[in-house]
């Protein structure tokens, strides 16, 4: 069970804590004066992969939206990547089933936490990159986009080599079969 404290102000706005699991597949770019990374992009930025199972606690208010939570998480850890690259998901457990659903930018995570209760088995939050089909390419830097193109070119060449080998083997078998049929008798 996950305990959290809710405090209500005179204006009806309440504050509390949420935990967000970071499930990021791609490396994040961090201000290198704040962290140590594996490969430097520039003078003050470093890229590295977050370890699996990384969970962060964030103190927010009932007025904070999903977009603001994503921005606050990235700011807390000095992440230089554009917040538009990321989405917040809620993970719900119902009758031995786990459902993961992307939250809209205008939803209020603390309200969802309050309604679900404090137990993370019932509701938890997950930060992920946008799904491939919904990537906002304008959120990536030029070097990142160029790197994606290099990777795509490499994958395309590998697939072409596989296809060429397959068709060459098929052609050899056809020519061998044709050679057997057309032997002069």
Gap between N and C termini: 85 Å
- The best one-word shape is elongated
Give the oligomeric state of the chains in this entry, treating copies of one chain as homo and distinct chains as hetero: single chain
If you consult CATH, what is the topology of the largest domain?
Ubiquitin-like (UB roll)
Instruction: Kindly give the count of domains.
Output: 2
Largest sheet: 6 strands, mixed
In percent, how much strand structure appears in the residues?
25-35%
Instruction: Classify the secondary structure makeup into a structural class.
Output: alpha+beta
**What is the ordering of alpha helices and beta strands?**
EEEEEEHEEHEH
Looking at the overall shape, the CATH architecture of the largest domain is: Roll
Q: What is the secondary structure topology, with strand pairs?
A:
Blueprint: E1 7-8, E2 14-22, E3 28-31, E4 39-40, E5 45-48, E6 54-61, H1 66-76, E7 86-94, E8 97-102, H2 109-116, E9 123-129, H3 142-181
Parallel strand pairs: 2-9
Antiparallel strand pairs: 1-2, 2-6, 3-5, 4-5, 7-8, 7-9
